[in-house]
Amino acid sequence: MKKLIVFPMVVVITAAGALGVAGAGEGGGGDSQWCAPSEGAPITDLDEDQSSNAHTIVAVGEQLGVPDFGLAVALATAAQESMLRNLDHGDRDSVGLFQQRAPWGTFEERTHPPTSSRYFYTGGAGGQPGLLDIPGWQDMPLTEAAQAVQVSAYPDAYAKWEDDAWAWLAEIRGGLTPDQQLGGGSCDSEWDGEDPPPLVADPAALMARAQAFADASAAGLPDPFYGALGYYRMCARLAARVHGHAHSGFISALEQWRSHLAAGTAVTDGSPPPPGALLFYTNQPWGHVAVYLGDGLVVSNDVLDAQTGRRGGVYIVPTTELTAGAWNLPYAGWAPPIY
């Protein structure tokens, strides 16, 4: 089994932001690769640590489809706030690359460069707007776009880093392969071994239960275990029911993922998931969760009819259809099926 094109859970927090991984996602197909973001080559005039953080900021933005100007804004912001260093301290409770304050997320989230980078782009856990939430940000001067997110006491300070940010971005682009430029990450090597030991007592029974959901969906029949219709439109509920629970206990997959992050049960190091694991994705605004069945397959709901031509339902598909197929979901990590 190959690895899924993955980006560890990234949540960008700035002076104001929010995390996103909730429960109305869709998914499906291909080989799977479990990969971490590429650290890239050293950048001129930056040390190894600063270079790695700059590469992460750009890779996260590219996974989110952020245009080049937004990537430059993020680089300039992190240069001003932390000198591109993942600080464990700052003014009052500010920490991390972007010196995001406590309402943006947990200490662990704000000091995890991919997560803090995603927060900068998409907003903080407390509902703070990220760069992509700012109306007209692409038409603003760089320092104004940065300030709209950071709400700094020094609103013009980002301007002095603009030339550097563009130079760093050009150098990063020059040092990445085309696949890395498009995907924002890389895979060191294929994982060709067996699946890790399963998290469920009977993986075959889990597969059979997932297949029963998929078969009922294909036939237009109600949930075979709980008798409900429309259940496939809520990914967190479907994942719970595949594991034998009527409800996930969360309003969304995002909230469920955040609970795993807070509890320390989230796995974001790029390691392959065991059968039975919950796979989380960071598409906005709700995120997505699917159940890993082993051998590169997941059971997932699907409501993106325009992209796939499907009517919506439950499907068992290869993992890469979620990340590299019609859905193009950014992978966050996996967690055990704790309910």
TrEMBL record:
Q: What is this protein called?
A: CHAP domain-containing protein
Q: Which domain of life does the protein's organism represent?
A: Bacteria
Stretches for region Disordered: 27-48
Q: Which UniProt keywords apply?
A: Signal
Q: Where is the signal peptide?
A: 1-24
